Amino acid sequence: MKYLITLLLIALTSIAPFHAHGAESPIQQKEPVPAINTKEDFAVRGYDPVSYFTSGKPEVGSPLFVYEWRGVRWRFVSSDHRDVFKTDPERYAPQFGGYCAMAMSLGRIADGDPEQWAVVDGKLFLNNNARAQALWNEDRPGNISQADKNWPLMPKKPNTSSAAADKVSRGALK
């Protein structure tokens, strides 16, 4: 019995440091979120993700130029922008699924506002509001690094297009 108690104490003391040094996940979100934020039924709220790179500013996309990628509809200001996106969507899609970069650095999820943005090292980042943008700007490299670590840990569910969702709701897809 004494031997068993000694083994138990050794096991408990060897496990305790892992818990005390941050073994818990930094992620606050427990329920899965869509992998790509589709507030207002479109990625980037209907703004053209290519415009941040070509015009240097956010531009609202047109309902005439829509492309579906990863189960999400994306709008563009022109067919040229749509076609550029089609060739390399990973390059133009916002980081962290279009959710707030500052929130992601804190292990949280928040909507990304297309008007609160930055292109850093060829990647598009959105933030939730001007305050989040200002905080994020205080340490862009550190916040990006932490968000890059947190994003893979965030529970996600795949997006489905509205057409697929309609079929699912009618029982057409199994």
Task: Briefly summarize what is shown.
This protein is an alpha+beta fold and 174 residues long. The chain has helices at 2-20, 51-54, 79-87, 89-92, 101-105, 130-138, 140-150, 162-169; strands at 33-34, 62-69, 72-76, 113-120, 123-127, 156-157.
Q: What spatial form do the alpha-carbon principal axes imply? A: globular
Question: Biggest sheet, strands in spatial order?
Answer: 1-6
Order of helices and strands: HEHEEHHHEEHHEH
Sketch the major β-sheet.
2 strands, parallel
Rg for CA atoms: 21 Å
- The CA-CA distance between the termini, in Å, is 56 Å
Q: How much strand?
A: 15-25%
Look at the helices and sheets and give the structural class.
Answer: alpha+beta
Estimated helix fraction:
25-40%
* Tally of strands: 6
Task: Please count the helical segments.
Answer: 8
Q: What would the average pLDDT be, to the nearest integer?
A: 83
What do you see in this structure?
- This protein has 8 helices and 6 strands; from the N terminus they run H-E-H-E-E-H-H-H-E-E-H-H-E-H.
- The protein is an alpha+beta fold and 174 residues long.
- Among the domains are: 37-93, no CATH class; 94-153, no CATH class.
- Strands 1-6 form a two-stranded parallel ribbon. A two-stranded antiparallel ribbon has the order 2-3. It has a two-stranded antiparallel ribbon with strand order 4-5.
- Strand 2 (62-69) and strand 3 (72-76) form a beta hairpin.
- The N and C termini lie far apart (56 Å).
